Amino acid sequence: MALTRDERASFNGFFPLDGTEYFEPPQPLVEGVIPKGEFTLLTGAPKVGKSTFAAHLSYSVATGEPFFGKEVREHGTVLYIAMERAYQTQARINKLFELGEQRHRNIILFKPQESDLKTLFFNDDEGDVDGLIERIDESDIRDLKLVVVDSLENTLVGSDSDSKDAGPWCNGLQRFLDHFETTALVLHHETKASDGNANSDVAYRGSSVFLARSGQWLRAISRSGGRGVLLKAQRGNFGSDWNASVGFNDFGLYEQSMPHLGKDKKPTLAEFVQARLAEHPMVTNARLTDIVGRHPDSQWPNVKAAEISGAVKALGDGVAKHANPTDGRSKLLEWVG
Q1: Cα-flanking dihedrals φ and ψ of residue 110, to 5°?
Q2: pTM for this one?
Q3: Could you give the CA distance from residue 92 to residue 77 in angstroms, rounded to a whole number?
Q4: For position 176, what pLDDT does the model report?
Q5: Nearby residues of 225 by Cβ (< 8 Å), 6 or more positions away
Q6: Which of 4, 32, 96, 127 would bridge with 59, disulfide CB 3.0–4.6 Å?
Q7: 26-235 domain in CATH 3.40.50.720?
Q8: Residue 308 contacts by C-beta under 8 Å, 6 or more apart in sequence?
């Protein structure tokens, strides 16, 4: 029994445990990856692929197409706040739409520096949030499902290490999300001295307030000589049970995973296996064989497990192998390069 916005405005916040189910578990915008109604913090060292990840996510939420095999629960308009390198973001998103042959491009790129607003600071005492809310309300932007903030540093007044600055920033962003009942992905830099360990917090830069207030924290880590990105849920109630990883190399993954869309050249078995691994990041060899054989675009309906195993080996260092926690003899396959 979730409270409505009007009920929350006048509610005293005390919930008697009388058997009434007041609280619902976090609901996903993208299954297992992005929780609704909160902001997900994506951190990583410079040039590791955070903006590329954000472009892929924006495309999936705008079109409803699966996000690396993860279901998009709700799709609609995406507002991408590009505080830096807007031309690169524009090129990435346009490329994805060209690959997917989608006509309805309901992604809106917003660069405050090119508007009369000039700046966009989410700190609650700056007034920029009210200005942004007002211009969206007055525009034709409807059904806003996702807001990408690229990046935290460029929308913050003060220091990212000072809790006195971090708190008002979180308040302002959450007030914006509550107004439109939407969700955010926020990009934030880590130090260049990242140790590449997905389980290490050593490279995180900034106040712990950002982590505490976020619904999810994802880390992007360079893999395979910088050709791929490993994403892992680190904290947050929503991400505690998500350990799968996602790997991609800019647009290669989407080109390979949609061979039936605008592709003149038919994929090899190794390319097709790579695409299926991208959509199903962690699967057993037997399951992967079944997926390849049953896929509607498959040219190998009777493929054997030995052929799949050979195709996986052909991908070389791009595939990581993990012990199956439920069966020590089996291995899980994950495309990372």
Answers
A1: -120, 120
A2: 0.71
A3: 17
A4: 96
A5: none
A6: 96
A7: no
A8: 273, 285, 288, 289, 292
Q: Positive or negative CA dihedral for 213, 214, 216, 222?
A: negative
Contact status, residue 48 vs residue 220, Cβ threshold 8 Å = yes
Q: If you average pLDDT over every residue of the chain, what do you get?
A: 79
* Edge-to-edge strand ranges of the sheet holding 319-324: 283-284, 327-335, 319-324
Higher confidence at residue 133 or residue 333? 133
Question: Apex CA 124: angle with CA 207 and CA 61, to 5°?
Answer: 80
Cβ-based neighbour number of residue 228 at 10 Å? 25
Name which of 54, 68, 337, 53 is nearest 223 in CA terms. 337
**CA-wise closest residue to 186 among 149, 153, 211, 215:** 149
How many CA atoms lie within 13 Å of 129's alpha carbon, on the beta-carbon side?
22
Q: Are strands 228-235 and 77-82 parallel, antiparallel or unpaired?
A: unpaired
Which residues, at least 6 apart from 249, have a Cβ–Cβ distance to it below 8 Å? 227, 228, 337
Classified by CATH at the fold level, domain 259-335 comes out as: Arc Repressor Mutant, subunit A (1.10.10)
Q: What is the pLDDT of residues 224-259, one digit of tens each?
A: 444 445 566 655 555 444 444 444 444 444 444 444
Q: Could you identify the residue written with the tokens 């059904």?
A: 143
Please report where in the chains the tokens 């989407």 appear, as a residue. Answer: 254
Q: Which residues are CB-neighbours of 19 under 8 A, at least 6 positions away? A: none
Residue ranges covered by each domain of the chain = 26-235, 259-335
What count of other Cβ atoms lies within 10 Å of the Cβ of residue 317? Answer: 12
Topology agreement, domain 26-235 and domain 259-335 = no
pLDDT of amino acid 165: 95
Q: Rounded to the nearest 5°, which phi and psi values hold at 171? A: -60, -45
